Amino acid sequence: MRELTIEELAQYNGRDRKPAYIAHRGKIYDVSRSFLWQGGRHQAIHDAGTDLTAALEQAPHGPELIEEFPLVGVLVEGKEHG
Amino acid sequence: MAKVTREVVERAGVDVDQLVELLVKNAAAELTTYYYYTILRVNLIGLEGEGIKEIAETARIEDRNHFEALVPRIYELGGELPGSMKDFHDISACPPADLPADPADVKAMLTVLVEAERCAVRGYTHICNLTAGKDHRTYDLALAILNEEIEHESWFSEFLGEGPSGHFMRRGDTSPFVSKFLR
Q1: Residue numbers of the domain that contains A61
Q2: A79, B22, B56, B93 — which has fewest CB within 10 A?
Q3: Which chain B residues are within 8 Å of A38, Cβ to Cβ?
């Protein structure tokens, strides 16, 4: 299971043929193959490469639709740079 | 474009460009669903299929009506439809309602139909949430469409054995909620 920080997750935004990943409750899902995430955008509002935990609270669907996608990693705290 | 209409919606705190994009995507979903439902409907044959054909046809016609009702609001708010039908298809707010590999499998047919309606129910709920108390005309339109999409879902859900829809099918008329936007 891959470990990505929020900054690393941002690279997987679904644009320029990059994979589209989204995070929810610490888990990272690959939505690249979803018709509803074309170009890394969903319903004109949500972007891939981000943590959608808070956004899902306002969404007209529950986490079950996200959990159908391949689980590819976990979200971790930012690494210290020294 | 209706300039003041757009201004008052913006001043109410709605991102109008985002809203227009959503309306265009949902208009695409309605027109493409109308197309895909045409294929599903003609394949609903035999003892089981014939029983579902009528509601599939009603849902098909009402989805076309939803497209017709959405278009004026898109242009009022300063939006437009894509020039390319192919582009329009590909930006749909819902996935294509493809004919199942075995059209004689009525459960598979119903699953395609109910999933399409559930996508629409989510989409219009989302638009209602964004516009409630802020953009009264779009809210009224989205709510009218939502009412019909909920009924479509309940019809197909009933046939899938998920429980009674709680109401009768249409009696000759279509779009009881959206028709006021079609006059």
Answers
A1: 2-75
A2: A79
A3: 90-91
